[in-house]
Amino acid sequence: MKYLFQRLAFYLVTAWAAITINFFIPRMMPGDPVQSLIARYQGQLSTKAMASLYALFGLNQHKSLWQQYLDYWSTLFHGDLGLSFTFFPTPVSQIIGQYLPWTLALVGTTTLISFLLGTGLGVVSGWRRGSWMDNLLPIATFFSSIPYFWLGLIAIAVLASAWPVFPASGGFDNGLVPSFSGDFIASAAYHAVLPGLTIVISAMAGWILGMRNMMVTVSSEDYVTVAHAKGLSERRVMFSYAARNAVLPNVSGFALSLGFIVGGTLLVEMVFSYPGIGLVLLQAVGAKDYPLMQGIFLIITLSVLVANLLADLAYMLLDPRTRREG
Amino acid sequence: MTIQTSDPGLGVAEPSPAAAAGPAVRTRRNRFAFLRNGKAITGLTILGIFLVLAVIGSWIAPYDPSAMSNDIMQAPSARHLLGTTQTGEDILSQLLVGTRGVMVVGFVTGFCATVISVLVGVSAGFLGGAADEVLSAFSNIFLVIPGLPLVIIITSFLPNAGDVVIAVVISLTAWAWGARVLRAQTLSLRRRDYIEAARATGESTWRIIVFEIIPNLTAIIASSFVGTVVFAVLTEITLSFIGVASISHWNWGTVLFWAQNNQALALNAWWWFVPAGLCIALLGTALSLINFAIDEFVNPRLRTGGRAGGRGRVRMRTGFTPVVRRTPVVRDPQKGDRV
After folding, report:
1. Contacts of residue A202 in chain B, CB cutoff 8 Å?
2. Between B218-241 and B163-174, two packed helices, what is the crossing angle to 10 degrees?
3. Cβ contacts of residue B269 below 8 Å, gap of 6+?
4. Whole-structure pTM over 0.80, yes or no?
5. Chain A residues with CB inside 8 Å of B280's CB?
């Protein structure tokens, strides 16, 4: 239990740090972003939006930095992330609420698939070192060093443009209205195949390499030799003795690399115009929509923290040492 | 965009002493052992070619990368070896000129992030106590916060950020992994006998860190440097691709940015986006190979068989009496493994 509380405390501190970074970024930047924005929009901004901008960027000279910080927290607790410019005057929280489920569904499914597949392949290739499975390594190395978005471009060029099997962009057929009907879900799944495939292939390579190395290290441990000596079956030794121990660093590595995976997913969404957070971030970047960008950063960070907490719980289930008292 | 999960000392409670003591001893015995590894040679050769191109790229480029011409959207030909864009720019020239930006950002970031990670990681591991708690918490926080969105936001606040500014911003998010690995390894080194001996002879803390600890961390520092360069290159290209970094500087990401924005995919202009991606993949693979070679150098168990003139590997056989038997490297797949 102590382990769990330690992790919880750590995530709270991290969340605080992320929010504080988010508070300071616009205040440390050179120039006056608000003035340049007002100039860009040439009078299209309402006074309310301008006031919210000044509050956001901390250019409200009448207040001390500390007072601004407190105000920032109190607006955050009210769920207020400011107003977006691109989708003016929609609040940022509403936009994020609309697009987040798409990203969560895409990231969740692909991460799970790539973790299971990659770890499985890594177990086998680490166990059968020197066999044909070693040929997987150069391929995995290649895929782990190309950017997600480029693989996405290739996937579009091959499977959507040259040989149109899957749709090149969007999250569902334009004729459908989002709902929980069978038609809509089928269409959404069909549109998710290419982006999903891209992410799975890119992310899987890392699991294969990491798991293989851990398997190689673990398979020469004494307890594996003992398991062999007891006459246990090959499969039993491989999964229950070697893989079970080798998977631990992979699970903690999994938690830590979630940030990378989420970053990659954002890019895949941009390439495929998939209606998720990544696409909104691209639009926000293009329009210099700072409130929206910062809101997205906060939400992404908090989601990654929650996912990390879940990975820690999984780790507790896998590793009895973390559960000991005291 | 992956993390090496194989670094020694990570996830394992205490790294095996052999992993740390090995490289130093072996380096002294044979300084060029590292270069006999095929992966290291391949990786270093490819990296060397890209480094040369980064220096001479803008001189050997056949055209001005931004010069428009009447050869619009042409497939590769003798005049334009990698074809042209929608406005008649030569893609080969863009890639050659763009190599420099990629390399500058990669190596400047690698350098800055490695310096930060050594400072934070080694201090945390060696000093221990409250300093360790604070520094580890600090690096864990930076490890968990997703780097890419943070870099995107900071960069888009900075108007006309150049290569070096971007490199510094990326280093701020890229140092934490190295710091973590270095701390774990320093922790296992600091209680070794030779460190105790150095302390007993009255060497100052900083002298012990610089002359006793850091030389034994060389392999890990090198590996985290290479890993950071990969991360920085990918991040820089991503920033250019989504149009956050200044698009007036050519780099491989800028080429992809224009390809994506000018419908190169729909027009089947494969020569526009395939070569840039292959360059990234080639550079990334080269750096990963160097990293694997370092890993194998530190941890010989990771080596794949079949090198060094068919020397068979020694494997412990199971049984009541351990028997060392030489097994051939390529096993008969019909007979299954470990017979």
Report:
1. 1
2. 120
3. B73, B83, B259
4. no
5. 145-147, 150
